[in-house]
Amino acid sequence: MSKEKGFLNQFYNNKVIVFFIRIFKETGKFLFRIGTFIWKKSKKNLKTYTMIFALLFLWILFGVLSNGTFVSPRNISNLFRQMTIISFLAIGMVLIIVTGNIDLSVGSATGFVATVVAYFQVFTFPKLLIPLISFLFPGIPAGISGIISTVLAIIIALGTGALIGLWNGVIVAYLKVPAFIVTLGGLLIFRGLMIAVTGGKSISPLEKSLDVIYNGYLPNEIGLVIAFLVIVFIVFNILWQRHKRRQYGLDVNPFLSDLGKICFFSGLVVIYIIYINSYHGVQSPVLFMAFVAFLFAYLAKNTRFGRYAYAIGGNSEAARLSGINIKANVLKVFILMGMLVGVAGIMLAARVGTGAPGGGETYELYAIAACVIGGTSLMGGEGTILGALIGSLVMASLDNGMVLLNVPSFAQYVIKGLVLVFAVWVDVATRKTKE
Fold first, then answer.
1. Which residues contact 304 (CB under 8 A, 6 or more apart)?
2. Is 100 exposed, middle or buried (0-12, 13-18, 19+ CB in 10 A)?
3. What are phi and psi of 355, to 5 degrees?
4. Of the four, 91, 108, 190, 228, which is 20 to 30 A from 358 by CA?
5. Taking all residues of the chain, what is their mean pLDDT, rounded to a whole number?
6. Domain 54-216+283-434 CATH assignment equals 1.10.10
7. What is the CB-side half-sphere exposure of residue 83 using CA atoms within 13 A?
8. Distances (CA, A) of 62 to 56, 116, 237
């Protein structure tokens, strides 16, 4: 027995052994702290993590069932391009729903804007604008005239969208008609106007320069430059947030946690750029969508207007008593939604190359579904632009994957409806847990 004790004493007195035991203990403590931190974060963002895992599950499932076709560079490029139109509508819809409202007219309004763009490019500009340009600038190339026509069509589309948003906003905010009724009426009004503009027939062909807006690609070199700039921004933004939180005496995340964020998001950017460059390059509508999403995310999170929108949706009476002008802010939200409808209308016209009387049908449902799947609460006061983008990607992935697998159209509608119901259930369940 004494020999065994002597052996154990020598074992524990060995400096090398003690050193490794300490390393093991400290590593265990560190992993425990990281695990606790991740668990707390996951509890706070349950809907976000559920959505991300659901997206990964869909990609793996469709990738296996399609023998890798779904995750091929060509299909991934098309997938991200397909999500852009709904994403523009979902970005604006987040702010609408956050304020406690809804907009059911965005689909019809998008189709109407697309027909207006087509009408001007096919009928008005060739009769008025092109002859005027040729008279003022003799010998000007036809391509330049086409680009001017496209620029003016874009301005008209954005103006039309803003007027649509103004119409909805004034009636909702100042005449106090429920947004559901106003925008449901708008859905019918703009569908009727679409038929009136087109005469029940498609309007085509549109300018080739308009086609580039939706179907264009950037050179691989520019894609790599964009990736580098985005990574620099990610690093700067995370480090700057750490600095500001420390400056104001707020809690700061563990450095390894922020380093993990930098590596994770930077890795996603690099993988995406390399993968897309192996096909044709970065898609022009995806780049524009990312820019608009960043702009609205900053607007929602870092400006007084964004904070007011969340306050109105969270508790409108408390917001009113705090001195927030609810009417003016709701009006601004609807005008921004209208401008994004203008952007979506341009993309729709560029995508199909025509102004069709049935354009934009059911887009409003897809936009709302993308927001809800992305974590936006239909009760108001909660939602993110990033979540809406991931929700749009989920909806686009469902569409794309089921088409590749030749799933019957009736089953596609059923599955997408079930996904929407599940997303709303997650919202209700997490809200009850918080309460």
1. none
2. buried
3. -105, 105
4. 91
5. 83
6. no
7. 29
8. 10, 38, 35
